[in-house]
Amino acid sequence: MADRPLRDQVALVAGATRGAGRGVARMLGAAGATVYCTGRSVRGRPATPGRTETIEETAELATAEGGRGIAVRVDHSVEEEVEALFARVRSDAGRLDVLVNDIWGGDPLTEWGTPFWELSISRGQTLLERAVHTHIVTSRHGAPLMVEQGSGLIVEVTDGDTLGYRGNLFYDLAKNAVIRLAYAMAADLRAQRVTALALTPGFLRSEAVLDHFGVTEENWRDAIGKDPYFAESETPCFVGRAVAALAADPNVGEKSGGLFSSWDLAREYGFTDLDGRQPHWGAFFRGRVSRILEQETPPGDMDRFVVQTRLWQTERDPGAAEETRRLRAWLERRG
Question: Is 171 a catalytic residue?
Answer without folding.
Answer: yes
